[in-house]
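Practice problem 4.
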């Protein structure tokens, strides 16, 4: 099994590129079918979702737009999901069908805060789309409609996801090994 080392940790391939891309394509087909006629605005959440968003969006077959936002967390509280602000949103969300595109939903708190924030901007509807979901770790009540891959409660990197800012530039997804 292919292994890589990032800083102090070893990782092994857990989800190969071919499988990821197959699931992403199926998800894009579902979304294209469900949201036909709604001219959705996809909102990718930076940094982690950039690779997923690019692959997903290429497989969307209905008229759609895409933009990206970045979430600024309070200093030292990133893991609690407390968001200071949603940065970079220049498009008008009012009246639009929004698809939030995340890399991973763990506790769900980050997504919950983002939903609260976007909700005040009066979109017509908001759909949640994530590359990865750790269902055993979900702490809040979220309707996660579009999930490419469900994973166990283990730390993963690659395909856009990082460990301390490193490891985003792999085609496969890796899981930390002891
Ligand atoms: P939540 O607010 O849902 O608990 O956490 C979501 C955020 O935690 C993600 O956007 C991501 O930054 C980080 N995260 C959670 N699990 C993992 C993981 O397994 N790998 C990486 N790289 N980040 C993770
Ligand atoms: Mg994220």
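Answer key:
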């Amino acid at each position: 099994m292919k292994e890589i080392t990032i800083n102090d940790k070893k990782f092994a391939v857990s989800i190969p590129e071919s499988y990821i891309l197959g699931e992403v394509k199926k998800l894009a087909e579902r979304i294209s079918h469900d949201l036909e006629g709604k001219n959705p605005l996809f909102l990718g959440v930076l940094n982690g979702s950039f690779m997923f968003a690019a692959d997903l969006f290429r497989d969307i077959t209905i008229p759609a737009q895409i933009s990206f936002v970045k979430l600024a967390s309070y200093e030292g509280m990133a893991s609690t999901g407390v968001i200071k602000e949603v940065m970079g949103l220049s498009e008008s969300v009012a009246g639009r069908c929004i698809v939030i595109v995340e890399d991973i939903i763990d506790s769900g708190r980050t997504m919950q805060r983002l939903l609260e924030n976007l909700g005040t901007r009066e979109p017509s509807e908001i759909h949640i789309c994530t590359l990865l979901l750790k269902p055993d770790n979900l702490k809040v009540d979220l309707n996660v409609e579009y999930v490419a891959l469900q994973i166990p409660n283990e730390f993963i990197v690659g395909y856009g996801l990082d460990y301390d800012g490193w490891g985003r530039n792999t085609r496969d997804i890796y899981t930390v090994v002891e």
